[in-house]
Amino acid sequence: MTLTSDKRVTLHSDAPRPSTRPRRKSKARAVKGLRDRPKPDRSFEAMRPEPRRRKSLANLKIGILSHWFDPEGGAAAGPGTIARALQARGHEIDVLTGYPIYPAGRVFDGYRIRPYMRETIRGVTVHRVPAYPSHDDNAARRMANYLTYGASSTIAAPVVLGKSDVVFVYSSPATAAIAAGPLRALRGIPYVMQIQDLWPDTVTSSGFVDGTASSRMEQVLHVFCNETYKRAAHIAVISAGMGDVLRSRGVPPEKISVIPNWAEESAFRPVPRDEVLAASLRINRKFTIMYAGNFGEMQNLDTLLDAASLLRHRRDIGFALVGAGVRGDRLTERVEKQELDNVIFVGSQPFERMAEILALADAQIVSLKDVPLYRITMPSKIQANMAAGQPIIAAVAGDAARVVEEAGCGWSVPPGDANALASAIAELADMNPLAREALGRKSREYYASNFSEKSVGDSLEDLLYQHRKRW
Questions:
Q1: Does 81 share its domain with 223?
Q2: Fewer CB within 10 A of the terminal residue: the chain, N end or C end?
Q3: Is the peptide bond before 173 cis (omega within 30 degrees of 0)?
Q4: According to the UniProt entry, which residue ranges have a biased composition of type Basic residues (predicted)?
Q5: In degrees rounded to 5, what are phi and psi of residue 155?
Q6: Is 152:130 a contact under the CB 8 Å cutoff?
Q7: What DSSP element (H or E) covers 244?
Q8: CB-CB contact of 124 with 149 (8 Å)
Q9: E-strand spans in 35-152?
């Protein structure tokens, strides 16, 4: 279901649902190659290639290049999920990554930056190399973090990944691929990229760099990205929209596959509500809408607080924000200044506790700003919330909103429209609890059919096998 709003919407519990109206055209600045792409009309399941299963699949030595890795959680949890799934299938995995800093930009307790560190996390061998520790909103510091990891990993890769059959590049950020080219040239090891964030679009849309500097950086990054695409054995994208853009930029269609992310299924699963935990975290309203993830500039969380302000008269509705990020302090200050007593901040939570945390809410929200880039992305929170069997309000546009609508597990509302968001939250709060539970079941069922490790893992494994090095 899709909700839009007029300038004002009645938000009382007995209010009728606002009528559905066409979305307004975005005024966001166009990102090259995004606005005019053809709109795919396929179901998500149909976009994914069918794996060509073999009677006997030899075990591979798979190197993984990733800027992020466990114990980093949230949006940075993906590489660990993939590594463990491949290892469970019998493959030997080595991960080359940095020291954990996401999302706050500070090195985690128990770690210190040194030239090299090797450890084993949940059975996966992890090699860590130094990078400048930053994840704030300063462009120079953020790029220093990305580029220093690129340099360190380039030096270390021939040693720690030099015997791999194939290298998997988790491309978020795109600079994670810096080491893949020299490794291919020196050792002849093919690499397969999975693009999580489309560069340079992510950089230019973020607002980190403006004016002439932005234009120059965009040109440089286009050259870099095109070169990594050219040298890659294959490119996996997480949404059909990303594939359309890559084709428009000259990547051959046969070199692109849609391989969506799946959630860490041990951490995101349906569990009963823990009333003791709820009381300890002050989650005590009759209906709770939860945001769990990064508190960044692009997550548009001010709109969520606007909706909380509109619903402050509804004593039965509460808002829980779980996580941390560069906007965390400003969001907290705003809640205190406006005395929004219906909003609580839970803080970052251990990854293994997320199933219990999500179960404290009646519905989850996924929120992003309305820029052309985000219309072709698939936020990892979509899969995580679906795996947990939660109803979803998608305050996003494009592919992610379409998936929620296709699953029938909640509502999509225009990004930045606080009235529409408040209306959707109010309607969910007023819904019969059994009807809400039905939405949660639809969410879980869609995940199982389209995003689960079982349904997607074969495709990824097959892709890596096809493009392995022939020794």
A1: yes
A2: C
A3: yes
A4: 20-32
A5: -70, -40
A6: yes
A7: helix 240-248
A8: no
A9: 61-66, 92-97, 117-121, 124-128
